[in-house]
Design goal:
By secondary structure, this protein is of the alpha/beta class. The radius of gyration is 23 Å and the shape is globular. About 25% of the residues lie in helices and about 20% in strands. The two termini are about 40 Å apart. The strands form 4 sheets. A 6-stranded parallel beta sheet has the order 1-4-5-6-7-8. The chain has a 6-stranded antiparallel beta sheet with strand order 9-10-11-16-13-14, covered by helices on one side. It has 2 domains: about 1-295, Glycosidases (TIM Barrel, Alpha-Beta Barrel); about 300-385, Sandwich (Immunoglobulin-like), CATH 2.60.40.
């Protein structure tokens, strides 16, 4: 489990006026995170704030600034603690300030659980600035003894937003798949650059790309309805990115988000926030988790794409598990069905696509080594065991 408590009380920043909150605890405050300069430049105040949160969950409670004790009775343990979320857009913290804050928070939290690891940066990459990586991943920029266990960043594909309140004023859904996969390929080139920086400065640090997903352009629509086929397209993009990132050696890939709620960004949810039922994004993720795992070997199926020679309309990647099971992941990036022929003896294929709705993957037998992939299909083909 990874702990992440990202909101910093706005009163810890210098702001022209105090930032007020509504009485309704369910109200969304898009304008809450104001201020870019901490009122305590030494960062002790904000570090102690996160220390108290850690004490609440890890050591059973904390004593507040006024000497009052608050008991939680909790004794939780976290594999990782991620320090903030998207500080490059929330309060626009510079690489230097963020690194100092990371050190101050980690210095206090690691005492609570010496076995807990830490994740830094957690960048949005909305405005790609390599200096965050050059500065944070350079050990001399940290206090002695502060670990650089892992760092993280995010990716979301989205059509260009013309009208954030309605679908009708934006690009048609028929164009979205081109935009999504083009953006994904651009992101993969950024990943290669970031990994190069990491290998140069801190090769032992893990890379966590722990939020990937897609947006519909009507991000502020009060009553959103996704276009037919959207969830399957989003699942296909997720599977494609996971496959390519696995090939690049990324340590962790996370899919956002489990469930949202009205007023938030609708297109990233894995569950329908009205019914709690899974959508095709969820089913596509489940298909990956059910068939692939740690220790799998990755084998490129076909030629690796380049800038001058992009990938075909169907992405494929072969995997072999530690116990010898062989599977092939296939992703149809297009809204039209695509036929594929297997060179290996494939027995069955499990698929979710734009025709399977929100249900689980459909498994069928493969006849004569050929199969048709449905629109925006995410599919896993099972290869017959090799003869002894």
């Amino acid at each position: 489990m990874v702990a992440n408590f990202s909101t910093i009380p706005t009163w810890m920043f210098d702001t022209p006026e105090p930032v007020t909150v509504q009485d309704d605890p369910a109200a969304i405050h898009w304008d809450y995170q104001q201020g870019t300069v901490f009122r305590d430049p030494g960062l002790t105040e904000v570090a102690e704030h996160f220390e108290r949160i850690g004490q609440w969950y890890i050591t059973g409670g904390f004593t507040d600034r006024f000497g009052v004790r608050h008991e939680s009775g909790r004794n939780d343990r976290f594999a990782y603690w991620e320090v903030l979320c998207e500080p490059d857009v929330d309060h626009n913290l510079s690489p230097e300030v963020y690194t100092r804050l990371y050190d101050a928070v980690v210095e206090r939290l690691r005492v609570l659980d010496p076995g807990m690891k830490f994740v830094g940066l957690s960048l949005s990459l909305i405005n790609f600035d390599p200096e965050y990586f050059w500065h944070f991943l350079d050990p001399p920029n940290h206090k002695d003894g502060i670990p650089l266990d892992a760092f993280s960043y995010h990716f979301y594909a989205t059509p260009q937003i013309f009208d954030p309140a309605a679908l009708s004023g934006n690009d048609p859904f028929e164009d979205w798949h081109h935009v999504f996969f083009t953006q994904a390929d651009g992101f993969l080139r950024q990943v290669q650059l970031i990994e190069s920086i990491k290998r140069h400065l801190s090769p032992g640090t893990e890379t966590h790309i722990n939020e990937i997903g897609t947006f519909t352009p009507d991000v502020l629509n009060p009553d959103p309805v996704a276009p037919e086929g959207y969830w399957a397209l989003s699942a296909a993009l997720t599977a494609y990115l996971w496959s390519r990132l696995t090939e690049l050696g990324i340590d962790l890939v996370g899919v956002a988000e489990f469930v949202g709620y009205p007023g938030m960004v609708y297109g990233v949810s894995l569950l329908d926030w009205n019914t709690g039922e899974p959508n095709a994004r969820y089913q596509g993720l489940k298909l990956l988790l059910d068939n692939f795992g740690p220790g799998d070997k990755v084998f490129r199926s076909g030629t690796a794409p380049t800038l001058m020679s992009p990938e075909t309309q169907v992405h494929s990647q072969a995997f072999e598990s530690p116990d010898g099971r062989r599977r092939i992941l296939l992703v149809n990036k297009y809204p039209e069905p695509r036929r594929v022929r297997f060179a290996d003896p494939v027995r069955t294929i499990s698929t979710i696509d734009a025709t399977t709705g929100d249900g689980p993957a459909v498994t069928r037998h493969v006849e004569n080594g050929e199969v048709e992939l449905g629109p925006f299909a995410t599919a896993v083909a099972t290869v017959e065991p090799a003869a002894d």
